[in-house]
Amino acid sequence: MLINHQTDHALRVSNSNDISPDHRIQPHRRLANLDAIRGFALLGILFLNIYFMANNFYGYAPHQPEIASDIIIEIISNFLLEGRFISLFSMLFGAGLWLQYQKTISLNSKNDHSTNNKVAPKKSSIKRRLYLLIALGAIHGVFLFSGDILLSYGLCGLVVCRYVTLEPKQLLAKSALFMVIAMAVIALISITLEDEQFYRGSDYFIEQLAIWTGSYTDQVVMQAYMIGYMLLIIPISILWYGASLMLIGIALMKQGYFERGFSHKQLGLFACISITFASIDSLLSLSDSAVLKEISGIFMMLGAIPTALVYWHIIVKICQNNPLRLTWLQNIGRLSLSFYILQSVLGIMLLRHWMPQWQMEFDRIDYMLLAIVLGLLQLFLAALYLRFFSQGPLEYLMAKLTKHS
To answer: How far is CA 320 from the centre of its chain?
Structure first.
């Protein structure tokens, strides 16, 4: 269960042959498309994380038997939400690594024209940022929300850095290999899991409810255990899945898809694959078999990728790299790290501390409505914040700590 649900950041130009002249990134230019996609992905993640902000281990507790509205929303989620935004975010993270790499080359070329001194600063600068992200993720995961993605992103990024200079075809081939490894391991783990019966009103539900609405100390202990578990799981599965998605993001950036989107033929292929896998995911997830429910996650993860690419295309075509289009999404994208943590703060405080009874009362539709309200609040806060500041607090801190000497 944890594997299926636990799985940005920076923002450039050199004489590298990995990218055609038409698609090189201009120095010091803000990429409106990527900001908008990042903002869209961050708001979308909330619709899945909101369940786990209540019960951090299992997420939503279904009724027994399930109610019609829950089934409808779950099917809609299987086609449009589940895994889609985390895939989109992961690809953006890979794109961000490529942009950091390009920016570092540009800065190094200004400071030192000697090619012999470029490699070390590039790697140390990017790795320093990733190490900080890992540290922030660990703190976030233990003390706030163990559904954290920053820790795994930082670890995946360290792997991906080794391949950032590869040609797009090589990146996609490496991505496919990593994906096969990840799916094979997840499949093996899934068929060995024996989860206890978790549904609304069960003894196990009451036990979990006591933890996640109980003392903060108990929650921290449980989340520390969960982060420890994730550190064991990440190297054998999530690391390869996340790295695979990040490599796709780098390939997309190098081929200019962040500016022009995809062809009609490509979009048709994405749609067919997505619908097929989502249909299989829905059939398996509604099964009474715990093993089949777990295996459905594999189809969810695979089907999420083409859907995420369709979302990528739609945002690109609407925004057209114009800072005056989809500004409300771009605002969130510019503050993504700070607002990712803010999501956790708001969700955790509401569902565990201020209104813990909601865990007993809320159905899926209630959680969806809450996510919409929190999303609208974030849009308002982002617009308000950027009237006075140009960077989010965590973005500013990361920039300071990773600033070139």
So the answer is: 23
